[in-house]
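Ex. 9. Protein: tRNA(His) guanylyltransferase.
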Amino acid sequence: MANSKYEYVKREFEFHRHLPASNWIVVRIDGCHFHRFSELHAFEKPNDDRALRLMNACATSMLEKFPDIVIAYGVSDEYSFVFREKTEFYKRRESKNISLCVSYFTIVYGMKWKDFFPNNDLKEPPYFDGRVVCYPNINTIRDYLAWRQVDCHINNQYNTCFWALVKSGKTEKEAHQALKVI
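Predicted structure tokens for tRNA(His) guanylyltransferase:
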């Protein structure tokens, strides 16, 4: 902002929360309303290989763009990005970490769409939300990634069974009911 009488707007009302030093930063990106988005774009169930490869391509672009990311883990419409413990990515400002990662991932998803869905036009723009969490040590990072992996396994197992039941002739309601019993 130029040095003017309006400088107080920034100085008095904006705040910058800095993430604590010596913590691992994890930014988790998640598709917003992707159940509807996947129906609108006729994703194959339970897992559309094109959609998964598109998500992986977006993650690869993130790794290339932001060298402080040391590992990425994704499932379905979600990706977690672990920044190195000593990162100074945008001075560890929480809002910058979230907004830059989410906006970059989202724009890459839209730009690469035709590479994976050459015969499908985007009917509505995809969008993602994000959250940032700090973890104090490598053991907690390992546990975080294990949690995401277990969650992936449980959800994928359920979805595989659910869609097998639907494809065998059950309604979605009947499939949900059948899986409740298990």
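Check your answer against this statement. The longest helix spans residues 138-167.
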